[in-house]
Amino acid sequence: MRGRSGRPRRRQNRIAGVAAILLGMLIFFFAAGQLRGGTGDGGFFRRTGAGDFVQTQTVILDPGHGGADGGAVGVNGTAEKELNLAIALKLRDMLTLQGFTVYMTRETDKMTCDPGLTGIAARKRSDMHNRLALMEEHPEAIVLSIHQNQFEQSRYHGAQMFYGRGNPLSAQLAQSIQDAFVSLLQPENERQIKQGEENLYLLWQAENPIVLIECGFLSNPEECEKLCSDEYQSQVAFTILAGLMDGLSGGMSFCTENGMDCTAGETVL
Ligand SMILES: [Zn+2]
Questions:
Q1: Least buried of 101, 106, 210, 211, by fewest C-beta within 10 Å?
Q2: How many Å lie between the centroid of ligand 1 and the Cα of residue 71?
């Protein structure tokens, strides 16, 4: 971890470059009407030197809460669960366009618990177990858990990443996504990434690379209003995508398959 003053400019420039390329691709695909749901095939990563294509990466998106579990409540009354799902669905479409295989722990407003359980505690426990079961079913998948933050004092704002303890890639991806938020959305954000403790069940239990993304504070009126807007939700989803791809491209080329300029990637973490 490092403070903003220590964040290399080269890395910031690189994220901006990655973002520009991604944006171009997304605009192209949207314009070509190729946006579709489900899983995609054919990614854009090529390993430096070796020339062999990396297997299409699998991502599990985990929109936090759902159904009877609303999560935090925004100052304007919006439930966290709704924003988590809205951002995750946008991110799903962007990831699919980039060739990722995407699974989601939920795609609607529901708890993922087993049927027939009574009592919120039992249902919440089952909900968490089932989310973890999907991760165990796909041990190769990177997990991005989408949440919104809340605090007693309204002045706090800004995105912050928490990472799991079971896989070293978690911290690397958390840092690159944190850096993407600073580079693309929140230049004043000085928050540091943190490892999730035992109270963050999925971060503690999962063996997958896993990052919990606190997109912003619902207790901050300005940030809450932004997070409720469709446009800002798209910007957040795009920022997460750029951070993920930048984190994965350490040591790889970032290029398109049709032979566009491919400059060697470098690991600067
Ligand atoms: Zn939450």
A1: 101
A2: 5
Each residue of 211-264: pLDDT tens digit?
999 999 999 999 999 999 999 999 999 999 999 999 998 633 333 333 333 333
Q: Identify the domain containing residue 79 by its residue range.
A: 4-254
- Return the half-sphere exposure (C-beta side, CA atoms, 13 A cut-off) of residue 198: 0
In a domain? residue 261: no
Q: What is the CATH number of the domain that holds 185?
A: 3.40.630.40
From the CA of 146, how far away is ligand 1's center (Å)? Answer: 8
CA distance 206 to 202: 6
Distance 248 CA to ligand 1 centre (A): 25
How many structural domains compose the chain?
1
Predicted model pTM:
0.79
The rounded Å distance from CA 242 to ligand 1 centre is 22
Q: How far is the CA of 31 from the centre of ligand 1 (A)?
A: 34
CA dihedral over 222, 227, 231, 237, signed as positive or negative? positive
